[in-house]
Design a protein that fits this description.
The complex is a heterodimer of chains A (673) and B (147).
Chain A lengths: L1 H28 L3 H30 L6 H6 L6 H6 L5 H23 L6 H21 L31 H11 L1 H13 L6 H31 L10 H26 L3 H23 L14 H23 L15 H33 L3 E3 L1 H24 L7 H8 L3 H14 L4 H32 L3 H11 L1 H25 L2 E7 L4 E4 L2 E13 L2 E12 L2 E6 L2 E4 L7 E3 L1 E5 L2 E10 L6 E9 L1 H19 L30
Antiparallel strand pairs in A: 2-11, 3-4, 4-5, 5-6, 5-7, 7-8, 9-10, 10-11
Helix pairs in contact in A: 1-2, 1-6, 2-5, 2-6, 5-6, 5-7, 6-8, 7-9, 8-9, 8-11, 9-10, 9-20, 10-11, 10-13, 11-12, 13-14, 14-17, 16-17, 17-18, 17-19, 18-19, 19-20
Chain B lengths: L2 H27 E5 L1 H6 L9 E7 L5 E3 L4 E7 L4 E7 L11 E8 L4 E9 L15 H4 L9
Parallel strand pairs in B: 1-2, 5-7
Antiparallel strand pairs in B: 2-4, 2-6, 3-4, 4-5, 6-7
The chains are: A alpha+beta (673), B alpha+beta (147).
Chain lengths: 673, 147
């Protein structure tokens, strides 16, 4: 029953979005406002229908309705309720359903918030979103249909992939990633809408789009950090980033979206980079679809690829269509998108933004080529190769340290042209921060030049970004006699985007420091211990207390209790484990991490004796790893601060709206340099 | 030259340099997946080059020293065999006859020094096959007690 209802809902939704896209297009072309309203209605209707299907799937999962193919594939009576619910996104079909639902939610929000705006930007954006929804609706009734009837109905299922039910972050990382990924469809839709409606010649659409992009960017940032954390906590190798294709897939759209967040300011302030920005938005969206293809089509062998099937071809066709259509449209608009401003001086914030965009784009292409090369080599020449970590590290580290340095230079330089005295006053003092951090790195024993440079530039950029806060706050303090806390709050409120951006910078600096320190000072050892014996790594001693086992409903758990000993006293214990799931022949490692502000003790059980006589345990000591997760939180905080516009827009009735001026002059705002 | 042409020239130089760097980086860092037969067929060109060696663990060749943490076994593809040496504990389910992918370099002594070892299993995780008895590994430890 549930399956039929949900499948019907998806069929109706397919028809609805198709009708909506056609009605919208004809309505805009034929100036039929009522048809456009119907198109808006189909956006809401589609959301309701996909919500019904999603709830039906959750209901089917929770009630163990094994007559539905997806439940038979990922469900099990022994799986705890929590992991049963989140297995909604644990395999291919469910995750496509979830994709469609998130897209429906975003589309509904976009249409509802902007429905009264005059002009054809929003109608065309809605049509674009409906076309994207159509693609996912086709997947859901075709190759990714999660509601196939299974007969005879099995009594039980295998349960979700053990790796995906072994840690609570699996409830966090995928939804965040989808919110970030799918959200990039909204800026893309606005970019398409701007080109189709002709509003692309004004820069107003960029302002409407920016908050949506920032929301998605915030979710994507959080998702990448959560993915790193999951990999760290679950996979047992003590690392968080391996340039794995699925990691790269989430990282590439982030790089391009980050470039856009900066270059959009150049367009708004200086009327430059119009064509470039359009390309960045389209590129971000294509990269999210490419990422979904890479992780969901089974083309890569990893935990993320669930199945081999025709779904990959659907994605390839969709990517090709999007690329061709957008390239033709962007090319057709290129004459209208000449810059109205120009670069006044090399010593300006614009220049730094240009460099930032250059480096971020080069970064993205490096990652893209490294990710796709093995696929292309195998497809064209039948060679089985991997592109190793050395490639990514060697190519991207120079870009990374340059970007960190620019994070300090950009905020310090003014728009337009900086005088020599200006530059001296702004750019020299942060070197104090650089020297301090470089000395810290060298004294603690860092010798890798990139690690030392990272420390130094983190010092430089942190100094420069905090200084901007300091300058603004002390000005308010002196002029309005405000207390420091009030000055801080009002300063941020006066220009949320700018100061939110600095907060995000500081978050990135924490992440960079955490990565540089943990990569430079990682120490590890493994040893086979009898109960009572201990091993010492980098001054930390851990003693094996016992090897134990217990049976849980869905798995068997073998653990080794390790006691951290300091001066003869036990200060902490860890239980690294191996979980044996009945559905998999090899156990799932379950490391245990003891975190403190200075770093982590990472325990992993490598092997054990059947009688508990000994166990092989690996202990990894890594400084500053928690700073990465903390920094990720700060980045998200920066995005939250920046999302809200300075003043609330009052939505005037469409009829009395003035037409959008062709060129919006940059008006200097309070608090901007 | 006009400003626009200058921009095009500078852009072209940047793109070409970047492409050349990428090409060089790829050439040096591509790691091939090889079977023992393919690796040995390379002769001296196969020495000291990082590769991923894939094959089966030859039954009866696994030697594991708990004290020194040295692991030695032979990887075979039926027509050729390479001796692999690794320091570190084997995966808990490391069994003779199973498929493995070993990353490392073949030394001039014809011993493959492994830096990492992956047990090959399909993406579609599967219930244990007949003959595979993971519970044999741990059932003596299950007492239903402890934390």
């Amino acid at each position: 029953m549930t399956g039929l209802l949900a499948h019907d809902a998806l069929m109706v939704s397919l028809v609805l979005v198709l009708v909506g896209a056609i009605m919208g297009t004809l309505g805009i072309r034929g100036r039929r406002a009522d048809w456009v309203q119907i198109a808006f209605g189909t956006v809401y209707g589609n959301f309701v229908l996909v919500t019904v299907a999603t709830l039906a799937m959750i209901y089917a999962l929770v009630t163990h309705d094994f007559s539905i193919s997806y439940v038979a594939q990922v469900g099990s009576r022994e799986t705890p309720l929590f992991y049963t619910v989140i297995s909604l996104w644990g395999a291919l079909e469910g995750s496509i359903l979830f994709w469609a639902w998130v897209l429906g939610a975003y589309s509904t929000a976009v249409v509802f918030i902007n429905r009264k705006r005059a002009g054809n930007l929003v109608p065309w954006a809605s049509v674009t979103l409906l076309v994207v929804a159509l693609f996912f609706a086709i997947l859901l009734v075709g190759p990714a249909n999660p509601f196939h009837a299974v007969f005879p109905v099995p009594g039980d299922g295998p349960g979700p992939n053990p790796l995906l039910q072994n840690h609570i972050l699996m409830a966090v990382h995928p939804p965040l990633l989808y919110l970030g990924y799918v959200g990039m469809a909204v800026p893309f839709a606005f970019a398409m809408g701007a080109m189709l409606s002709g509003e692309v010649v004004s820069d107003d659409w960029i302002k409407i789009t920016r908050p949506y992009l920032l929301v998605s960017w915030g979710f994507l940032s959080a998702a990448i950090i959560a993915g790193m954390w999951w990999s760290y906590e679950v996979l047992g190798w003590g690392g968080y980033w391996a340039w794995d294709p699925v990691e790269n897939a989430s990282f590439m759209p982030w790089l391009v979206a980050t470039a856009f967040l900066h270059s959009a300011m150049v367009q708004e302030r200086r009327g430059m980079l119009r064509l470039w920005n359009l390309n960045l938005m389209v590129g971000t969206f294509v990269l999210t679809i490419l990422g979904t293809f890479l992780t969901r089509s089974g083309i890569l062998s990893s935990v993320h690829s669930f199945t081999q099937g025709p779904i990959g071809y659907y994605f390839l066709v969709f990517i090709a269509v999007v690329l061709v259509v957008t390239l033709v449209m962007v090319a057709g608009n290129s004459d209208r998108l000449r810059s109205t401003g120009h670069l006044e001086s090399a010593a300006s914030r614009e220049t730094v933004f240009l460099l930032n965009n250059l480096f971020l784009t080069a970064f993205m292409f490096t990652v893209l080529i490294g990710t796709l090369f093995p696929l292309v080599a195998e497809a064209l020449r039948g060679l089985k190769v991997t592109v190793g970590e050395p490639f990514f590290n060697k190519m991207t580290l120079p870009l990374i340290v340059s970007l960190i340095f620019l994070m300090g230079v950009g905020p310090a330089l003014p728009w337009g042209a900086a005088s020599k005295a200006d530059m001296k006053a702004k750019l020299l003092p942060p070197f104090a921060g650089a020297v301090v951090m470089a000395v810290i790195a060298l004294v603690t024993g860092a010798r890798n030049p990139y690690a030392v440079l990272t420390f130094a530039f983190v010092g430089y950029a942190a100094f420069a970004n905090f200084r901007e806060y300091w300058i603004g706050m002390s000005a308010r303090h002196a002029a309005h006699d405000e207390g420091w806390a009030t000055a801080l709050v009002r300063l941020v409120q006066g220009n949320r985007r700018r100061y939110g951006g600095y907060v995000a910078h500081i978050g990135i600096l924490f992440v960079a420091l955490g990565i540089a320190a943990s990569q430079s000072f990682r120490t590890e050892r493994e040893a086979t211990l009898k109960p009572g014996e201990s091993l010492t790594v980098a001054g930390h001693t851990a003693r094996l207390k016992e090897v134990w086992g217990r049976q849980e409903p869905q798995r068997a758990v073998i653990g080794a209790t390790m006691e951290v000993v300091e001066n003869g006293k036990v200060v902490a214990t860890a239980d690294p484990r191996m979980n044996f799931y009945p559905t998999q022949s090899t156990p799932v490692p379950t490391p245990q991490v003891i975190s403190s502000i200075g770093g982590d003790l990472y325990f992993n059980l490598m092997a054990f004796d059947q009688n508990g006589a000994h166990a092989t345990v690996k202990l990894i000591v890594q400084p500053l790893v928690p700073w990465i997760w903390f920094g990720g939180g700060i980045v998200v905080l920066g995005a939250i601060i920046g999302v809200f516009p300075k003043r609330r827009r009052r939505t005037a009735p469409a009829a009395v709206r003035v037409p959008v001026p062709a060129v919006v002059l940059p008006i200097p705002r309070e608090g901007e340099a | 030259m006009s400003k626009r042409n200058w921009a095009i020239v500078v852009g072209a130089i940047l793109v070409v340099t970047f492409g050349w760097l990428l090409y060089g980086g790829l050439n040096k860092n591509v790691v091939f997946f090889l079977t023992p037969k393919e690796l040995l067929a390379k002769g001296t060109a196969g020495y000291d080059v990082p590769v991923q060696l894939g094959g089966q663990v030859k039954p009866g060749t696994v030697q594991w020293n708990e004290k020194t943490m040295h692991l030695q076994f032979e990887v075979t593809d039926d027509s050729a065999t390479v001796v692999v040496h690794e320091t570190g504990a084997p995966p808990q389910m490391f069994q003779p006859g199973m498929g493995v992918v070993v990353g490392g370099k073949l030394g001039r002594d014809n011993v493959f020094q492994a830096t990492n070892l992956m047990v090959k299993h399909s993406n579609e995780y599967h219930p244990p096959k007949p003959g595979e008895k993971p519970e044999e590994m741990y059932k003596t430890l299950i007492k239903g007690s402890t934390p």
